[in-house]
Design brief:
The complex is a heterodimer of chains A (172) and B (104). Chain A contains seven helices and no strands. Chain A is an all-alpha fold. Chain A is extended. By secondary structure, chain B is mostly helical. The chains are: A mainly alpha (172), B mainly alpha (104).
Chain lengths: 172, 104
């Protein structure tokens, strides 16, 4: 089982690197979908089959399709001039070094984590559902309000508004 | 039966998170920046799942479902904003979007 974890983790990391360093937006999105599928394998190995299914359906299925749809609508393709200007080492070396320092910081903090019993039983969707609709019922309702606000906001931002000018500003 | 130590699992999530952070800091294309934010959200959710497995509690998976809802809203709003930015500026370069900057 450990071998599967390491293989899935390696695929996820490699495809994520390809996704953030690619030039073509569509190719990067396809690599990102591959990364999400690999992470869903990791979820399955971590005894969370329900979450693995949600990852495939919602992340790789819905959210990434939204991304690809917008990318195709904008017809982005290769942005040669901008990429050549911004992807030179002088620009990315400092953010990368700072991110690596933060990463080492996190790893050193993890070294002092208290040891605990490692669970080895599958957490079934039934338990998740019972917890979701009893303990976290208020949070579910807040999430529902958030989704409603998201729908209204996306509609408002996405609609093409007609420009309304004052009658003195209208060119005859 | 998975016997990978918890530290290694969190190391994996941390690598993914910092790949996303590096992508957010390095890239200047709005679509790529939103993708990097997605990677970071996903790795944060992965830590919740690892914790749920570690402590044998369903709460971590519940939190992942909330992260999923927040991510869906964030992507919908973010992509709508990207469309508006593209219609106004005809580019996705964030450095071109500097109308709030003082000229002098």
């Amino acid at each position: 089982m450990d071998v599967f974890f390491y293989i899935a983790a390696a695929i996820a990391i490699i495809s994520t690197i390809m996704a953030i360093s690619g030039r073509n937006a569509i190719h990067s999105l396809l690599f990102l979908i591959l990364s999400l599928l690999a992470i869903s394998v990791v979820f399955y190995l971590l005894d969370a089959p329900f979450i693995a299914a949600l990852e495939v359906i919602i992340y790789a299925g819905a959210i990434m399709v939204l991304f690809i749809f917008v990318t195709m609508m904008l017809n982005i393709g290769l942005e040669k001039k901008q990429e050549r200007r911004w992807l030179n080492p002088r620009m990315w070396i400092i953010p990368s070094i700072l991110a690596i320092i933060l990463f080492v910081d996190l790893m050193l903090a993890l070294k002092n984590m208290p040891a605990a019993t490692v669970g080895n039983q599958v957490i079934l969707p039934k338990q998740v559902g019972i917890s979701l609709f009893t303990t976290y019922l208020l949070a579910v309702e807040i999430a529902a309000i958030l989704l409603m606000a998201g729908v209204i906001g996306a509609y408002h931002l996405g609609s093409q508004k007609k420009k309304v000018l004052h009658r003195f500003l209208v060119k005859k | 039966m998975l016997t990978v130590p918890v530290e290694t699992q969190i190391l994996f999530a941390g690598i993914l998170f910092f790949l996303g952070l590096t992508g957010l800091l390095v890239r200047r294309n709005l679509v790529f920046m939103l993708m990097s934010i997605e990677i970071m959200f996903n790795s944060a959710g992965l830590v919740f799942i690892i914790a749920a497995k570690h402590w044998n509690q369903p709460d971590g998976q519940v939190m992942f479902i909330f992260i999923l809802a927040v991510t869906a809203v964030e992507v919908a709003i973010g992509l709508a904003l990207i469309l508006q930015v593209y219609h106004h500026f005809k580019t996705l370069d964030v450095d071109a979007i500097n109308k709030l900057k003082d000229d002098n």
